[in-house]
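dumping this here so i dont lose it
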């Protein structure tokens, strides 16, 4: 019996998702992630890689932060204030929450009137 390319080619399939990592923050909202491997089976003999991504992120929420710690997003923005230049001008970073309410990822905008939203 002769083997053809189609008989020996093996496309990859995803294995199970691993466990989620711990939350990136010890208080308030952070991020955790998990990964999976393209090994059930691995692609071989010219087979296709698994479609999609091998990682998944999820928001996680811990207890509220102590009041003296301040807004974490504002702290992150403050760390970059000395380094941000856009279109020849230095800008001040501010925390920004998307108004559609569908998600609350961290974004920052400049403090200038009609500010520029990046992220």
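and the seq i came up w/
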């Amino acid at each position: 019996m002769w083997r053809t390319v189609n008989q020996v080619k093996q496309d990859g399939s995803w294995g199970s998702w691993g466990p989620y990592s711990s939350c990136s923050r010890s208080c308030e909202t952070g991020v955790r992630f998990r990964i999976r491997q393209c090994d059930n089976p691995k692609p071989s003999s010219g087979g296709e890689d698994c479609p999609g991504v091998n990682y998944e992120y999820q928001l996680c929420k811990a207890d509220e932060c102590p009041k003296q710690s301040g807004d974490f997003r504002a702290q992150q923005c403050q760390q970059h204030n000395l380094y941000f230049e856009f279109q020849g001008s230095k800008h001040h970073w501010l925390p920004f929450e998307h108004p559609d309410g569908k998600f609350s990822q961290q974004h920052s905008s400049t403090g200038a009137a009609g500010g520029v939203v990046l992220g």
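The chain has two domains: 12-65, 71-119.
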